[in-house]
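Can't paste images in this forum, so I'm doing it all in text. The chain is below; anyone willing to post the predicted structure tokens underneath?
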Amino acid sequence: MKIVVTGGAGFVGSTLCIQLKNKYPNYKIVAFDNLKRRGSELNLKDFQKSGIEFIHGDIRNNEDILAIGEFDVLVEASAEPSVTAGLDSDPTYVINNNLYGSINCFNACLRHNAKLIFLSTSRVYPIETIEKANFIEEETRFSFAENQESEGISNQGISEKLSLEGARSFYGTTKLASELFIQEYAAFYGLQAAITRFGVIAGPRQMGKTDQGVVTLWMAKHYWNQSLKYIGYGGTGKQVRDILHVDDLIDLIDLQIHQIEKFTGKIFNVGGGLENSASLLEMTAICEKITGNKITIGSEKLTRPADLRMYVTDITLIEREIGWKPKKSVEQVFEDIYHWIKENENQLESILK
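Text version of the structure:
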């Protein structure tokens, strides 16, 4: 089998390529990436060691995709992942990459009668609906209340039933538009595809920064004894996300590659779930425990555009229909990132510090 991973030198892409090659040494794994994100070039040595082919290309350029040749499966993991992309500047890049580039990938799948695994996002759901949800302020976090007015929100989090009506950011809109195109391709061209809406994904190999990769950022700042800041919602650090270990994501993609019929025509919300959620305050406590370092954390009350007080994935549907659930805890995510930074300190210092 030949599997192409677009965004293959990114965090999820590179981890996926390496783990698939280790598990299926006879498969041909191709990492396709434009190396735009700082730190992605560090993965090229690992690809060489593992026997993974690397193609330097851009999904916005159809000629680059044609150069890949025939393949059996394409995993589309090449998105510009920042929620703030295009909000304070021209949105052309995020639209071209996440929508037009993705369509080039869909066409390539048709050309070769290949399966498509599409990594979508929880950010397809409208900001205002989630922000207006009933919540409880607890000692260390915000939580969804049991009584909610919107279908699709409960104390377990956000389910697939939540209405998609409303603004969601340019990033979220491009991913939702891509989902809609996939459904058209499936209906009229017979494209076999799996669409999954992921929340926060974390783990080793993630080059975290403030707008994307907050879990790695939090651990890195504690590791090197640098300051952080709680931003928004009064600056208390109580905003919450559920966190999915990248290894659990790869287990699911492995299943999608080999049993895509279970996923065709369906869309699942996937994340760590309520059990694996944490506020910034709680993340700080975990990082202090692992590193032994206590750092200065400032406070900025003003909330940034497109931010969310909380997002927790309700994973009930995929657990019931597919039998998948995350295996790794929030603490395990932070421990794995800590050991990765420690083992690669010299390489990572200039990027993460």
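The first strand starts at residue 2 and ends at 6. The two ends are 39 Å apart (CA to CA).
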